[in-house]
């Protein structure tokens, strides 16, 4: 086999040149080992080489000179391992001349090391997450990856303390470490390796190289990679401690006071709370005004209390089982707010004002036990809010859907995929949803190996080019960093993002369940785990950020707060008489309120006007011949008042609503034409495929950014008919 043949399986680049090379050198064969420099063409690096080769074939000047020289030598027949010639020694179109002596060897080694380093960096970017320290329990032990070994890229232990000179502009548009290194910084290989491990294999693991958009990948690299390690201020670290204390002590307090009551606590994943709070803080700094949250029951009470700000004494009151006069209760709740559901299914809403004056409306949507059913409801609510805020790009940045998931449900329930699959479709997108998976590594009693076929519970996101940030739940600083980064991604790119918060469930599925029946080894380990509050406090003390007296004072202050609030709850009465709505919805009437009798009929002339617009086709619009006959028959029926079909009656009714100023939207697969070809709400030009919507031509003007207009002959509300993916569940939201 020729040398090209041996390297073909290692690089698609070589597969592209094998035919040409073999034709030029049919007798070239050898029995010796491949050149040492050829190691860079193996593993994940061949993808990078392939990308560079594509770029070079389109424009040789768009890559660094060293790449240009390399590809020219390969095209001229040089063996891959011998094609590394320093740029100054080779002119385009000139056959390389072998050099001798230490200078030639040194130059070749420098270039090889620069290339090897670029492939090492890429390997960490692509696969570092596989060996990151994500599991707080340390039970998910993974073997080392050969792709992350420096020897695979031509380095030895002797090279660790050597500086590596990267040619200027070597990064060719790739940001992060490689860009900084090619900008004149020459750190040692040991330091670079240390920073790569800290970035990609510590408490944070990132999957983003599957995203087919260099600009987005560069954005992540820029935010993750830096040769100068950044640290948070003492003030922020102490603030994280305080928020963490509110989360941990909340669960402990409820456990102490109501140890026989189901609460589906967040014990083992308490860092979720500071993560969410910092995410919302960062999003509001970037223009967010409304956050709509959907989540299952796990940790819901903690989120209600510490994120949404439901009065804590009200939560305590709900636990106390105080006698309730149902007659009086029903009388006081004679509206739509009397849900009657259990406390860990209810939602609430709250308007928060920050010290600098910015505001955010937080709402947690009520959710049934069917864990992920709330997903499309949350996204649909956000879509509606954005419509009423102007239905433009600016509205996307003002309203953010935030969905919390369990690991087993996220990978197991089809509505998750259906909802995410709608995210980029016209008339369904909301500018991106932030998905947070509270990954306690168990589904009720089922181990991950039995609950999914993929490596991660979050792998569904890869199908939609969604970045996935994995983070160890026992590292609050890393959690906050990732949650803030997720908010920044969403506001920048207006697309979905996933945070996989790897933690554990301290107790059973509920607090009175026995998990030792099915996971004895896991729960032996959990029993020996310190709380995240204790470990983080010790970390602050050990790093001289705070004294033990300072951390103890913060924690004691939180205990005192819950204790005082608990005493207040014993005599507290709900003055708003509302289970979970902060305010009554405008224009909604209760069951006991009477509405005025409305005229349901329409003026015949108005109906004829609507009918005329339904069947009128613009000049020059090439309508399908069969549809011409259908519309002609429809026009005749409207004029005569006889033979009207249900499709026409439907359109006339919608037209009346539109002229009264009511926005009408229909959605689902095939709604534009109608499954049985009965609707034809959207017409298509047979030559240009241009769309025409008759129901948006009833008045002289339609403002698609206005949901409700003032009724009049010159205005109408917009009509939207939007086909969807073949979703039988999520599209209902």
The fraction of residues in strands falls at 5-15%
Can you count the beta strands? 14
CATH superfamily heading of the largest domain:
Thiamin diphosphate (ThDP)-binding fold, Pyr/PP domains
Question: What is the fold named in CATH at topology level of the largest domain?
Answer: Rossmann fold
Which radius of gyration do the C-alpha atoms yield? 32 Å
Domain 2-oxoglutarate dehydrogenase E1 component N-terminal: 38-77
Protein name: 2-oxoglutarate dehydrogenase, mitochondrial
Keywords: Magnesium, Metal-binding, Mitochondrion, Oxidoreductase, Thiamine pyrophosphate, Transit peptide
Subcellular location: Mitochondrion
Describe this structure in words.
This protein is an alpha/beta fold. Helix content is 41%, strand content 8%. It is built from 25 helices and 14 strands. Strands 1-7-8-6-5-2-4-3 form an eight-stranded mixed β-sheet. A two-stranded parallel ribbon has the order 9-14. It has a two-stranded antiparallel sheet with strand order 10-11. The radius of gyration is 32 Å and the shape is globular. Its EC number is 1.2.4.2.
């Amino acid at each position: 086999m020729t040398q090209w043949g041996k390297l073909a399986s290692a690089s698609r680049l070589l597969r592209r040149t094998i035919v040409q090379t073999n034709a030029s050198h049919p007798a070239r064969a050898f029995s010796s080992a491949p050149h040492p420099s050829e190691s860079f063409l193996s593993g994940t690096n061949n993808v990078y080489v392939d990308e560079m080769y594509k770029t070079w074939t389109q424009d040789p000047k768009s890559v660094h000179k060293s790449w240009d020289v390399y590809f020219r030598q390969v095209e001229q027949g040089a063996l891959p391992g011998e094609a590394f010639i320093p740029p100054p020694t080779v002119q385009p179109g000139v056959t390389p001349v072998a050099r001798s002596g230490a200078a030639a060897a040194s130059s070749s080694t420098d270039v090889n090391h620069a290339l090897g380093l670029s492939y090492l960096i890429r390997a960490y970017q692509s696969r570092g997450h596989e060996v990151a320290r994500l599991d707080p329990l340390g039970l998910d032990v993974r073997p080392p990856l050969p792709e992350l070994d420096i020897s695979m890229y031509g380095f030895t232990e002797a090279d660790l303390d050597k500086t590596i000179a990267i040619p200027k502009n070597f990064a060719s548009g790739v940001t992060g470490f490689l860009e900084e290194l090619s900008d004149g910084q020459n750190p040692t290989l040991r330091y670079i390796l240390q920073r790569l491990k800290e970035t990609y294999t510590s408490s944070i693991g990132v999957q983003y190289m599957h995203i087919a958009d260099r600009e987005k990948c560069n954005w992540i690299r820029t935010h993750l990679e830096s040769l100068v390690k950044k640290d948070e201020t003492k003030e922020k670290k102490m603030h994280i401690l305080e928020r963490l204390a509110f989360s941990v002590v909340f669960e402990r307090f409820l456990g102490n006071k109501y140890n026989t009551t189901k609460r589906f606590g967040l014990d083992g994943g308490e860092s979720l709370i500071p993560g969410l709070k910092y995410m919302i803080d960062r999003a509001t700094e970037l223009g967010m005004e409304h956050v709509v949250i959907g989540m299952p029951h796990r940790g819901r009470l903690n989120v209600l209390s510490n994120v949404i700000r439901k009065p804590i004494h009200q939560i305590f009151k709900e636990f106390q089982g105080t006698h309730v006069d149902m007659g009086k209760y029903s009388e006081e709740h004679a509206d739509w707010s009397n849900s009657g559901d259990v406390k860990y299914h209810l939602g609430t809403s709250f308007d928060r004002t920050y010290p600098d004056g910015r505001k955010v409306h937080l709402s947690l949507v009520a959710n049934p036990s069917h864990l992920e059913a709330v997903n499309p409801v949350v996204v649909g609510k956000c879509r509606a809010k954005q419509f009423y805020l102007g239905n433009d790009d600016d509205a996307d940045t003002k309203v953010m859907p935030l969905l919390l998931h369990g690991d087993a449900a996220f990978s197991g329930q089809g509505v998750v995929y259906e909802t995410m699959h709608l995210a980029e479709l016209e008339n369904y997108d909301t500018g991106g949803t932030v998905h947070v998976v509270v990954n306690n590594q168990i589904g009720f009693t089922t181990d991950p190996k039995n609950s999914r076929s993929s490596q991660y519970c979050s792998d569904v996101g890869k199908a939609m080019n969604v970045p996935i940030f994995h983070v160890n739940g026992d590292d609050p600083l890393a959690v906050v960093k990732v949650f803030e980064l997720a908010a920044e991604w969403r506001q920048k790119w207006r697309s979905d993002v996933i945070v996989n918060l790897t933690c554990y469930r301290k107790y059973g599925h509920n607090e009175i369940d026995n998990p030792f029946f099915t996971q004895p080894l896991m729960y032996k380990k959990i029993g020996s785990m310190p709380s995240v509050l204790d470990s983080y406090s010790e970390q602050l003390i050990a790093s001289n950020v705070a004294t033990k007296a300072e951390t103890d004072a913060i924690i004691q202050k939180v205990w005192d707060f819950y204790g005082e609030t608990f005493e207040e709850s014993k005599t507290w009465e709900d003055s708003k008489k509302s289970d979970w709505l902060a305010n009554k919805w405008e224009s909604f009437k209760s069951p006991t309120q009477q509405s005025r009798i409305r005229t349901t009929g329409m003026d015949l002339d108005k109906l004829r006007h609507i009918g005329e617009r339904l069947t009128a086709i613009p000049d020059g619009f090439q309508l399908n011949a069969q549809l011409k006959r259908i519309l002609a028959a429809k026009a005749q029926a409207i004029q005569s008042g006889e033979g009207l079909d249900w499709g026409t009656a439907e359109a006339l009714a919608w037209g009346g609503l539109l002229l009264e100023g009511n926005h009408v939207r229909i959605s689902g697969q095939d709604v534009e034409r109608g499954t049985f070809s009965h609707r034809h709400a959207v017409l298509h030009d047979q030559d240009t495929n241009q769309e025409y919507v008759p129901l948006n031509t009833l008045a002289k003007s339609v403002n698609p950014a206005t949901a409700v207009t003032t009724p009049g002959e010159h205005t109408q509300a917009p009509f939207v008919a939007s086909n969807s993916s073949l979703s039988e569940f999520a599209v209902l939201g």
